[in-house]
């Protein structure tokens, strides 16, 4: 019994100085705090993801505009009519042995190098670079109907504000590879000068614009061929076969007033006949050199001509016929008779 309290109840003990009531979170508080922290982390991650997506989108658009993005385009949706090509005799190139070799490579290994296209004002894809690759894919698809060749791997660029830059981009690759003849380089310079949308107007200025990366001596050779092609280009049957020095000599004589008999030049049936005629004119000969006295063609020289719709290629040890005919469907005996008749005709000529 506690003294001083008649009811026998002692005083309530107060907590000692310095102790505090426990404020530990209960299960619900812990759950709420963890949920809030998780929500904050998710929000931060979402903000960072959106920032990264925006940066990636800007980078992609820049890469696409600069032609660093490759896409697959159906070969039938790519047009080639807005720029003159930097190749002469496109039909001959399309049917050449080099084209067959390119097709064999694509057939075996696929398209290794992309072509380059741009969107025209009409919204159509126009070819800038890669005419041979596009042609090879089109031929392969037409021959086999294989879907591997239905699309071309391409860079898509925005059209240049300066149309002359389209010409520069087109020839740049082939010039670097030294894959264009002087006649072809001269012809595209003439095309640029004649293009009213390019605003160049002068062949000399066109040469300077297209081939500014070349040595000035080589640009001088190209200007000589510009003079030659401007004078007789349409009547020059084998322009790519004109040697550099001969072309320069003819251009110099043209500047001195030389007149070339264009009809006689256009009638030349071989490279040798054409070049011998030009040499005779340069040397002041009264008549062209007799090509029958020229040396026999070497194994690397070839002649091409057409008989109706049939294209014939003749070279040392080879005579090739290309026509829209399935020769595999003709009986062997018929083909043998045709070959014997061909051989007999040659023998009678000899």
TrEMBL record:
InterPro entries: Chromosome_partition/occlusion (IPR050336), ParB/Sulfiredoxin_sf (IPR036086), ParB_N (IPR003115), RepB_N (IPR037972). Residues 1-27 are annotated as: Disordered. The keyword NAD does not apply. One of its GO terms (biological process) is chromosome segregation. SMART domains: ParB (SM00470). Transmembrane segments: none annotated. Keywords: Plasmid. The keyword Transcription regulation does not apply. It comes from the Bacteria. One of its GO terms (cellular component) is chromosome. Pfam families: ParB_N. Residues 76-175 form the ParB-like N-terminal domain. This is RepB partitioning protein/ParB-like protein. It comes from Cereibacter sphaeroides (strain ATCC 17023 / DSM 158 / JCM 6121 / CCUG 31486 / LMG 2827 / NBRC 12203 / NCIMB 8253 / ATH 2.4.1.).
């Amino acid at each position: 019994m506690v003294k001083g309290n008649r009811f026998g109840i002692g005083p309530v003990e107060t907590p000692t100085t310095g102790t505090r009531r426990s404020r530990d979170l209960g299960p619900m508080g812990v759950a709420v705090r963890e949920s809030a922290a998780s929500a904050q982390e998710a929000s931060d991650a979402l903000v960072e993801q959106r920032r990264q997506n925006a940066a990636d989108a800007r980078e992609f658009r820049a890469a696409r505009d600069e032609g660093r993005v490759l896409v697959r385009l159906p070969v039938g949706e790519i047009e080639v009519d807005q720029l003159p090509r930097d190749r002469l005799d496109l039909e001959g190139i399309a049917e050449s042995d080099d084209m067959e070799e390119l097709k064999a490579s694509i057939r075996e290994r696929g398209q290794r190098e992309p072509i380059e296209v741009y969107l025209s004002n009409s919204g159509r894809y126009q070819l800038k670079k890669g005419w041979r690759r596009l042609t090879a894919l089109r031929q392969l698809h037409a021959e086999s109907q294989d879907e591997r060749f239905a699309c071309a791997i391409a860079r898509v660029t925005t059209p240049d504000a300066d149309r002359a830059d389209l010409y520069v981009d087109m020839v740049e690759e082939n010039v670097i590879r030294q894959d264009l003849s002087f006649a072809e380089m001269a012809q595209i310079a003439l095309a640029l000068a004649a293009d009213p949308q390019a605003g160049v107007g002068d062949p000399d200025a066109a040469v300077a614009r297209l081939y500014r990366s070349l040595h000035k001596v080589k640009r001088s050779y190209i200007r000589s061929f510009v003079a030659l092609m401007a004078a007789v280009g349409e009547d020059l049957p084998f322009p790519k076969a004109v040697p550099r020095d001969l072309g320069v000599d003819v251009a110099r004589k043209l500047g001195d007033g030389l007149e070339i008999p264009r009809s006689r030049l256009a009638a030349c049936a071989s490279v040798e006949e054409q070049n011998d005629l030009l040499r005779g004119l340069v040397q002041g000969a009264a008549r062209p050199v007799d090509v029958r006295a020229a040396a026999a063609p070497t194994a690397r020289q070839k002649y091409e001509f057409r008989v109706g719709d049939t294209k014939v290629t003749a070279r040392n040890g080879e005579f090739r016929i290309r026509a829209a005919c399935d020769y595999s469907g003709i009986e062997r005996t018929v083909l043998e008779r045709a070959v014997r008749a061909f051989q007999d005709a040659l023998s009678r000529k000899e």
